UniProtKB/TrEMBL annotation, chain A:
This is Sulfate transport system permease protein CysW. The chain crosses the membrane at residues 50-69, 81-106, 126-149, 184-205, 233-256, 277-299, 319-340, 352-376, 382-404, 441-463, 486-504. It comes from Palleronia marisminoris. It is found in: Cell membrane. One of its GO terms (cellular component) is plasma membrane.
Automatic annotation (TrEMBL), chain B:
InterPro entries: AAA+_ATPase, ABC_SmlMolc_Importer, ABC_transporter-like_ATP-bd, ABC_transporter-like_CS, P-loop_NTPase. Gene3D superfamilies: P-loop containing nucleotide triphosphate hydrolases (3.40.50.300). The keyword Secreted does not apply. This is Thiamine import ATP-binding protein ThiQ. The lineage of its organism: Bacteria, Pseudomonadati, Pseudomonadota, Alphaproteobacteria, Rhodobacterales. It holds the Pfam family ABC_tran.
Length: 514, 231
């Protein structure tokens, strides 16, 4: 049998152990500081609101995504490919940037209220529970649409051909072909959106707050920042953990669809299509809802970029540093884990250790790290490294999803050939693994870089004015009602995130042979 | 001389036994129904799968304890014989040294091997831009450079059309004979076995039989082979 030397396995096992130790250590720290005693009514309100808004956001996102996905699945039109690509963009779109865009459209002085005032309508407020839900739908409608679109495109074209030859009516096709698919795909898609919304922080921080619209994550932050009650923050972190882990366990039972799927660029030929205007309306509405905020932001922010204050550029420098560090560590860790997982007989446990970040939310990890480091170092001196670290752990599951199957494929296809040629580990890594994995490596690095570039989470716990990242600086500008500067900073952040993703992803594709 | 001594290969319910000798320099077809264990037998000899009992010897020396890369065996698989990100010359160079870093002399040997398989001028092409037949030629050129006396081919030409397959078999047979290699080639087609000439190992009913002259075997096939051939 192929008797391989083992260094690559050790590296992966060590990386997985480090991640597991980091997550477990944070949780133990949280546990040790959590103060017993009853939760206040406010804390229970946060739990209720977290679950309620997540249910509503998931229902709305998925409910609206079904007709949009159906329209995209069965209509071919110019710009369709671009639109489907854009639906993938919220993954790398910084939350705070999107929120500012939504404010420009739905906010007090936004386009919608301007139009309403002209018609003599009373002003709408975006702040509160409905604002939180609006932002969540903005973020998750595209994701849900892509997930459901994948379901539609997974239906073999032959089935529609068969239906046409049998003379099935539109209702029959819906009942026999499309309903069963939706029943299989929709619960998973809804659960994904629900889980994302239960760990919502930046949206609740900017649009929510107060007794009626505070999520658990936001409550953790407030216990820290305003009351400096570490014990209560830790207790809330435990609650958050229970929610995340509880529904995460549920996700193991429901088939959760893959968000990164490709091959969404074909349209199956169908014979049961009615007039196109219904689908056209859905596509137009969804595009308008998703693109108008970004357009509004660009219109306001681009001119403002010239006069941006120096603090914004300093913060941008910090963000680039954080993005570079977490892209490097995340990709390296994921690669080591993926290689070990492919080679060890029970490699699944190594892979699962790397996925542990899914069990903890960013603020839970941040709380734990704060408790552990607080006795030794001033939080603001650790703000940037901790942000990079937490983002590494958070992006790791995505990187593993891209890399584990890719490494497995390379091992399956080429390990026998390499063994018959007597290739050692070093040569294998340099001459086979690296060139074969450039695409998923570039994609993972790009994703990690973009995620951490735009992250507004842990940094808010640790940073002071000196050590802010760009998203935090942007939030502060918004808080000070310097909306022009904020819009300029948001355009800068958007550009940096997209550039970070593009550079890494592109680097993996250029000159790579399929 | 390749000796399979009391070999027993188990995979769940499946059992294959082999006790046979292949003389050095022989050209042997390995034939039998699909699922009989032809490919498994080759991967045990190549070192990709362990037998449960028995020994494998080359020229009297035990080789089944060696890693695949240390055995006197060059294998050409059904597919994935080439690294798609390397040029034809780079792929062939791996036969001399897995790191692919070559001296000037060795580079010349790579070029000679490519000429020998009829791929003069294709050095810089990557597998994606070569036809199936040309890819087989690259893999074979590399196997030639590996300088290993035993050459195992696991239906490497199955995906080629009949004319190209015949051509490749002729090329492989000629070059193997010329360079004194012992060759085992899996095939399910009696026509292929006849073209290879020489002898055939019949793999059927859980047993790999000792090589017999192919002509005789096909003229008077044993029951298992008759069932398979359907004649």
């Amino acid at each position: 049998m192929a008797r391989r030397p083992q260094p690559l396995i050790f590296a992966g096992a060590a990386a997985a152990s480090l991640v597991a130790a980091l997550v477990a250590g944070s949780l133990v720290a949280v546990l040790s500081r959590a103060e017993g005693g009853a939760l206040s009514p406010g804390d229970w309100a946060a739990v209720r609101f977290t679950l309620w808004q997540a249910v509503v956001s998931a229902a709305l996102s998925v409910g609206l995504a079904v007709p949009v996905a159906r329209a995209l699945a069965r209509r071919q039109f110019p710009g369709r490919g671009l639109l489907v690509t854009l639906l993938g963009a919220p993954f790398i779109l910084p939350v705070i940037v999107a929120i500012l865009g939504l404010l420009m459209v739905f906010g007090r002085a936004g386009w919608v209220n301007d139009a309403g005032a002209a018609l003599g309508l009373p002003p709408l407020s975006i702040y509160g529970a409905h604002g939180v839900i609006l932002a969540h739908v903005f973020f998750n409608l595209p994701l849900a649409t892509r997930l459901i679109l994948q379901g539609w495109q997974a239906i073999p074209a032959e089935r529609f051909r068969l239906a046409a030859s049998l003379g099935m009516a539109r209702g029959d096709i819906a009942r026999h072909i499309e309903w069963p698919m939706l029943r299989a795909v929709v619960p998973g898609a809804a659960l994904v959106v629900f889980m994302i919304c239960t760990t919502s922080f930046a949206v609740a921080l900017t649009l929510g707050g107060g007794p009626r619209a505070t999520t658990i994550e936001l409550a953790i932050y407030q216990a820290f920042r305003f009351d400096f009650e570490l014990g209560r923050a830790a207790l809330l972190a435990l609650l958050q953990l229970a929610v995340t882990a509880g529904f995460g366990a549920l996700a193991l039972w429901v088939a959760v669809p893959e968000a990164m799927g490709r091959g969404l660029d074909r349209v199956v030929r169908r014979w049961d299509l009615g007039p196109a205007w219904g689908d056209a309306v859905w596509i137009a509405l969804a595009s308008a809802f998703l693109l108008t905020p970004l357009l509004a932001l660009l219109l306001r922010g681009l001119p403002a970029m010239i006069g941006l204050p120096g603090s914004v550029w300093v913060a941008a420098g910090h963000s680039i540093w954080v993005a570079a560090v977490s892209a490097t560590t995340c990709t390296g860790t994921a690669l080591a884990i993926a290689v070990a997982a492919a080679r060890v007989r029970r490699g699944r446990s190594i892979e699962l250790a790397g996925m542990l970040g899914l069990a903890a939310s960013p603020l839970v990890l941040g709380t734990g790290l704060f408790i552990v480091t607080y006795p030794f170092a001033r939080p603001d001196t650790l703000a940037l490294p901790v942000t990079a670290l937490v983002n590494t752990v958070m992006a790791l599951p995505f990187a593993l999803r891209a890399l584990v199957p890719a490494v497995q494929r390379v091992e399956e296809e080429y390990a026998p050939l390499a063994a018959s040629l007597g290739m050692g580990d070093a040569v294998w890594a340099r001459r086979v693994l690296w060139p074969r994995l450039r695409r998923p490596l570039g994609f993972s690095a790009g994703l990690a870089a973009a995620l951490s570039m735009g992250d507004l989470g842990v940094i808010a716990l640790f940073a002071d004015t000196e050590s802010a990242t760009l998203p935090l600086q942007l939030y502060r500008l918004m808080g000070a009602y310097r909306m022009d500067d904020a819009a300029g900073a948001a355009v800068l952040l958007l550009a940096l995130s997209l550039a970070a993703f593009w550079i890494c992803d592109r680097g993996g594709r250029v000159d790579a042979d399929a | 001389m390749l000796t399979l001594e009391g070999l027993v290969i188990r995979q769940g319910e499946f059992v294959l036994r082999a006790d046979l000798v292949v003389p050095a320099g022989a050209q042997v077809a390995v034939m039998g129904p699909s699922g009989a264990g032809k490919s498994t037998l080759l991967s045990v000899i190549g070192g990709f799968f362990d037998a449960d009992e028995g020994r494998i010897l080359w020229e009297g020396e035990r080789i089944d304890t060696f890693a695949p890369g240390k055995r006197p065996v060059a294998t050409i698989f059904q597919d994935n014989n080439l690294f798609p990100h390397m040029s034809a010359a780079e792929n062939v160079a791996l036969g001399i040294r897995p790191s692919g870093r070559l001296s000037r002399d060795e580079r010349e040997r790579v070029d000679e091997a490519l000429v020998a398989v009829g791929l003069d001028g294709f050095e810089d092409r990557k597998p994606g831009s070569l036809s199936g037949g040309q890819q087989s030629r690259v893999a074979f050129a590399r196997a030639l450079l590996q300088e290993r006396p035993l050459l195992l081919l696991d239906e490497p030409f199955a995906a080629l059309g009949p004319a190209m397959r015949g051509e490749m078999q002729a090329l492989v047979g000629d070059l193997a004979r010329e360079r004194g290699r012992t060759m085992l080639m899996v095939t399910h087609d009696p026509g292929d076995a006849r073209r290879i000439g020489g002898e055939t190992i019949l793999v059927a009913d859980g047993r790999a039989a000792a090589p017999m002259a192919t002509d005789e075997l096909l003229r008077d096939p044993p029951p298992a082979l008759r069932d398979y051939l359907g004649s």
